[in-house]
Amino acid sequence: MKAGFDATGEVLLVTGGASGIGAAAARAYAAAGGTAVVLDTAAPPARPPSPDRGGVEHHRVDVADRDAVFACVADVLERHGRIDGLIAGAAVQPRRDVVAMDPGEWRRTLAVNLDGVVWACQAVLPAMIERRSGSILVFSSGLAHAGRAQASAYAASKGALISFARSLAAEVAAHRVRVNVVLPGVIDTPQFRRANPEGGEREHWARTTGIGTPDDVAGPLMFLLSDAATMTGSQLSRDRALVKE
Prior knowledge:
The protein is 42% helix and 15% strand. It is of the alpha/beta class. The longest helix is centred in the middle third of the chain and has 29 residues, at 103-131.
């Protein structure tokens, strides 16, 4: 049975959506008739789409900059009148031993991966609460549960996001706003390729769990954004995938 997702007239905010999973989600949302608003430091400038049709618009925003996030969200609300969903996916993933971790690199990782999610939630929630409708998706990682060498800052930020999202879900449930966590698993994105060069663990994952594509995650994200997904405070994990022959 095939299921459809209709986002006509709706607006989705995607942080870190210039590439990878965020970009795939933005494309899928636009294809379903909605408007996807991408916030990313690498996002190319683009003319905003007309409010009466779907599309993808890009804004150069550093999610660690709270004022910039709030200004962008205010602009989106002024032009479109609503924000129905938020995918908080912006992240950085430094590879560094703990003893060699520069304080600035540590703080930058938490500022983007953790603070950036908090700022985006703070910015969109008042409008969602007023409309008594909204879906927030927070990206965590399997590394939040299983440690990995040279991934302490990234894992710490992703572990904190799970606790944050669960608490936020309880906080806004009465306002009919849902908050869920997504653990995408091993996905072939530019960030993954930078952190995992050819060979080693990458070959192991290819043989075992399989390395997915961003489009593999877009479908589950569309489901969680839809009214069909009534859960909140949940984790959707793609820890395993069919290994393609």
